[in-house]
Amino acid sequence: MNDIEPEPPEAQQIFGDRIELARRFTAALAKHGETRGLIGPLEPPRLWTRHVLNSAVIAPLFSGRVGDIGSGAGLPGLVLAIARPDVEWVLVEPMERRVAWLNEQTEALGLDNVTVVRARAEDWREGSTLDAVTARAVSALRTLVPITAPLVRDGGELILLKGASAADEIVAAEKQLRKFRVTNARVEVVGEGVLAEPSRVIRATVR
Ligand SMILES: C[S@@+](CC[C@H](N)C(=O)[O-])C[C@H]1O[C@@H](n2cnc3c(N)ncnc32)[C@H](O)[C@@H]1O
């Protein structure tokens, strides 16, 4: 088994008084994530920095009722629900064993601000009700826009965790952004001065 990354000092700064829940979730993911097919074998030594803190640092960007599409192991959805108990989180995930994990963790951590929905985003007939949608490592923006924008209310936001290709993804999604009335798409870097490797989001408004 790979060694588990020790908790970095910035974790306390990011989670504040929610740090104990973040520790419990990270420990559970380190212990069961690989055997339950949630994370790869290379991830435990970088679980805090690459996954948990990468997700948590964007928590201040949200309010209201937010969907996490393709939540998987709970990244970013469960981590954000820990960091922001004042926001309501809907985790949308089609795979049964991942849904089971999300439900177990929601209960074990006592998170009363989380709903888990087993569905593909495009099959979830909720209407345009969410204040924002987030997603991480699900697909490129041009594929993500058609399945996420219809879930967001007029004036709500897409806030999508992305890697170094974020700016190129915006260019490649020009047609889909126009078709689904997604405006002001831009890349924002979050966590500079806090994380050695800050997070990057594509942020845009749905009109
Ligand atoms: C590579 S995993 C990423 C999981 C997690 N977001 C993360 O960052 O570790 C992609 C996840 O998206 C889910 N997914 C794929 N297509 C989807 C769709 N159309 N609607 C909702 N979830 C989807 C998959 O089942 C899988 O759990």
TrEMBL record:
This is Ribosomal RNA small subunit methyltransferase G. It comes from Microbacterium pumilum. NCBIfam families: rsmG_gidB. Its main location: cytoplasm. Keywords: Cytoplasm, Methyltransferase, rRNA processing, S-adenosyl-L-methionine, Transferase. S-adenosyl-L-methionine binds at G70, L75, A121, E122, R136. Belongs to the methyltransferase superfamily. RNA methyltransferase RsmG family. The gene is rsmG. Specifically methylates the N7 position of a guanine in 16S rRNA. It is found in: Cytoplasm. SUPFAM superfamilies: S-adenosyl-L-methionine-dependent methyltransferases. The lineage of its organism: Bacteria, Bacillati, Actinomycetota, Actinomycetes, Micrococcales. Pfam families: GidB. It comes from the Bacteria. It is an enzyme of class 2 (transferase).
